[in-house]
Amino acid sequence: MASEPVERRVRILLTGDGDSGKTSLILALVSEQFPDRVPARAEEITIPADVTPEKVPTSIVDYSSREQTSSMLKDELVRANVVCIVYDVTSEESRDRLATHWLPFVNKETDAKKPIILVGNKDDLQQSSSIDGILHLMETYPQVETCVECSAKR
Questions:
Q1: Which residues form the Miro domain (predicted)?
Q2: pLDDT tens across 49-99, in order?
Q3: Residue 72 CA to chain centroid, in angstroms?
Q4: What does residue 9 show for φ and ψ, rounded to 5 degrees?
Q5: Residue 101 per-residue DSSP state
Q6: 124 secondary structure, DSSP code
Q7: 135-153 per-position pLDDT tens digit
Q8: Contact indicator for 74, 5 with CB cutoff of 8 Å
Q9: Residue 35 and residue 63: Cα distance in Å, rounded?
Q10: Are 90 and 17 in contact, with CB atoms under 8 Å apart?
Q11: From its phi and psi, is residue 16 left (phi > 0), alpha (psi between -120 and 50) or beta?
């Protein structure tokens, strides 16, 4: 008796400090424009397989500490295939919290087994890239696959 093929899916969790622009990034991706009004959290979005380069359905999940508990975040971390930690490139505190809070927390909750992408948002508000200041985190945390800077506005 042949077994049913398991449908592959990718689940991407966006987490990070409040006001880092997680929801704006998701809404700008979906609508291809910067949102005029940004809710505290975007609903889960599923991108169909035929639209993704890997031909795999991809769910994007937004975490908001304003609307969800840390227990809910822990559950989402377990379910995620990839974790994007979004930080505000214009905020030294937000950059610092990558090492002091977010990376240790995600590692603890996932046994350091989930790929992580560090996403610096709001780069339209800075004169030059600040990514050099966080690249060392890739050496300290091997599960950090890459670091990028972007702007939900652009």
A1: 7-154
A2: 998 888 999 999 999 988 888 999 999 999 999 999 999 999 999 999 999
A3: 16
A4: -140, 155
A5: I
A6: G
A7: 999 999 999 999 999 999 9
A8: no
A9: 18
A10: no
A11: left
